[in-house]
Amino acid sequence: MEGIADMGGTPGWGPVHPPRRAEPVFEETWQGRAFALATLSGRIAYGGVNLDAFRHALERLDRAAYLDDGYFGRWLNGAELMLTDSAILAPGALDARARNLRGEHVAEPPVPEPAVPDYAPTAEGSLRSVATAPAFAVGERVRAKALPVPGHTRLPGYVRGHTGTVEIVQPAFVLPDTNAHFQGEHPCHVYSVRFASRELWGADAEPFALTVDLFESYLENTS
Questions:
Q1: N or C: less crowded end of the chain, CB within 10 Å?
Q2: What phi and psi values does residue 141 have, to the nearest 5 degrees?
Q3: Maximum alpha-carbon separation in the chain
Q4: In the predicted model, is pLDDT for residue 154 greater than 70?
Q5: How many CB atoms within 10 Å of residue 180?
């Protein structure tokens, strides 16, 4: 979907700073707790691990919830959205509880009837086997489809409609576009596609090559 999460290739965010060599996994204790809470919330809300549904929750956050609270704050906001999606929490329940813990006296919404999706992955992880042969080969020119995507996708906006070259044919993976919405895994092959920077951003772009992993359903022949 087109939203704040599709930031790749967009201007105005300043320089990218590589991680420090000895950077800890969690800079502060609360960040590790946020990671654990988000992971647990996904299991409770969806009846199992669905990374695509979690990513879809993050990309549906508004700009403030996505950016202003930092990386792990975003995870907490996504966890709350997952739990309200599945009616584990009522909308506004966390805000009301936080206000009461601060000594205020506000009414908390009643606990709703849970509506957890009927979801069970066919296997662990995202790798799957498919009977069909890959549609594209190494060295083949392909175009990323220029289609609006109303729901979740891993097709970046900045490559849509642009042409690149297949570098690697990857194994088949669960398709995020359907799995995020509990509409089936629909696994398909994945391709590492190399794009020229000037193909993506025009003649004034610094010359370099960018490789993006794209699902087969995102690609089409250039002819």
A1: C
A2: -85, 130
A3: 67
A4: yes
A5: 23
Structure tokens at 159: 């490559």
Contact 133, 161 (CB under 8 A): no
What the block records as the tokens of 128 is 């799957």
Tokens 């979907």 identify what position?
A: 1
Instruction: Could you list the beta-strand ranges (E) of the chain.
Output: 127-128, 141-144, 163-173, 188-196, 209-215, 219-221
Please, where are the H alpha helices in 12-59?
A: 29-46, 51-59
pTM, rounded to two decimals: 0.90
The answer to whether 56 touches 18, Cβ cutoff 8 Å, is: no
What is the dihedral sign for C-alpha 119, 122, 124, 129?
negative
Question: Could you tell me the pLDDT band of residue 1, with boundaries at 50, 70 and 90?
Answer: low
Q: Say if residue 64's pLDDT is above 90.
A: yes
Average pLDDT value over all residues in the chain: 94
Confidence of residue 107 (pLDDT cuts 50, 70, 90): very high
